[in-house]
Amino acid sequence: MNPVMPGRYTAQIDGPFVVFLIGMRVNRVMAFRKWWPAASAMPRMLETLYAHPEKGFLGGELFLRFGPLTTLLMSYWRDFETLERFARDPADPHLPAWRAFNQAVGGDGSVGIWHETYLVPEGGYECVYGNMPVFGLAAASQHVPASGRRETARRRLGGQNEPAVPTPPAAVAPL
C-alpha cells in the first residue's frame, strides 16, 4: 500500500493526454461463466500495459463496487492512437477478450460493458489530492505540491484568484 502524503498535491503532465474509463457490470450474478472471463481479462491487460510503457499507457486505478457488481478502470494514456492500437492489436490481450465476450455474451444482457474516452488538451485539466497516497493522474504523471500557481483550481487551469480557504500546512514526513 502506498503511503499517505500529508498536505495538498496536484498532477503535472506535459502535453495532451487521454483519460479512458472502462468497466463492466454483472447483471446476472448466477451467470458466472459469462461474466468471469470478462472480469479476469483486465488483470492480464494491465500486466501487459505496465510491462510495456511504449504502448502509451501512463497508469491507472481499478475500482470495484458491490451491489450490483461493477468494475471501473480509470486510466491515462499518452494519446488516442496508442489506446486504439492496443485495443485492436491481435497480439495484445484486449482484442481476444473482446471477441470472446461478443461470442459468449453478445446482447443477452447478462453482463454489461462500457467505456468513456476523454481527449484532454495540454493544460486542460486540474486536480487536487489532499492527504492521499499518490493517486490518479498524479500517479500516472508527476505528483507535485499544490502551492503557488497550483494552489487553487482556477490557478491550476491558468487563471488567477485567491484561495477561498487557507491551505493548511503540510506535515514533514509521509504517514
Short précis:
The protein is built from 5 helices and 7 strands; from the N terminus they run ββαββααββαβα.
Question: Topology, pairings included?
Answer:
Layout: E1 5-12, E2 17-26, H1 32-51, E3 57-65, E4 70-77, H2 80-88, H3 94-104, E5 111-120, E6 129-132, H4 136-140, E7 142-145, H5 153-156
Antiparallel strand pairs: 1-6, 1-7, 2-4, 2-5, 3-4
Helix pairs in contact: 1-3
The number of distinct helices, counting runs of at least 4 residues, comes to 5
Helix content: 25-40%
Q: Specify the oligomeric state.
A: single chain
Mean pLDDT: 94
Give the ordered list of helices and strands. EEHEEHHEEHEH
Top-tier CATH class of the domain at 17-120: Alpha Beta
Q: Which shape, going by the Cα principal axes?
A: elongated
